[in-house]
Give the backbone structure.
Amino acid sequence: MTVMQRRQRPTRVEPVAVPWDAKWMNALANVLLMGFIGMLMGAALWWGVRHTNFSLQRITVDGDVAHSNEVTLRANVAPRLSGNFFTMDLAHARASFEAVPWVRRAVVRREFPNRLRVTLEEHQPVALWGNEGDVRMVNQQGELFEANAAEADVERMPRLIGPDAQSAEVLGLYRMLTPLFGQLHFELNSLELTARGSWRAHLEGGSVVELGRGQAPQVQERVQRLTQTLTQVASRYGRRVSAMESADLRHDNGYALRLRGVSTLETQSVKR
């Protein structure tokens, strides 16, 4: 006997419409809840901003500190800082540290809950800048800075002179010419870019070389002409290269030379 089971159809449930006043009440409750949470967060933030536990307590310094230390920085920078861990303007703090002598660059970071960590990069002086009495120096990047020259080994530094905006160019040419003069055992003590755009070199022993105008490759070519022929020319008059008193390289394909004790070369053009 076979029993036939009747398949039941699923019962369809009609959605119940939510009254508009209930929707409004739910929305209002959500708004009030969000507002309450926002008030709590704002109160917590306000408490954190005002709490003395987050006031700046210590500055930790690392990096290049040959001329800077925490005591010096605290005395020079701390009075310029305002705010606490949350509110301090790090850009202003960085500028305050970089205003300290010898500091080239500073990276300032917060350390929870009440500290600053400062990583310093100091200027590395390579030359004095300007005429005698100018207290500025040139760093490895060709940038000018002012600091206590007594804290640097200035006796071995060359002096560079020129427009402030061209300090990197003057340093670059000095680095290019130093080994060239070194071939004749001359030490380049000073390099000057005059207001008229002409280059002038002062060598150890008082020799002065007029290098003329132009970019570095042009000046380099003129100096090479001098260094490759000076020994031969000086020997003609029984002199060593160290007898050079002055040279003027502003002549086409030659230069004028003055040797100590020899007057005939004062305006002579020497050709290769």
Observations:
- The helical segments are 20-50, 70-77, 90-98, 167-182, 216-236.
- The chain has two domains: 55-122, 125-271.
- The radius of gyration is 38 Å.
- The longest helix spans residues 20-50.
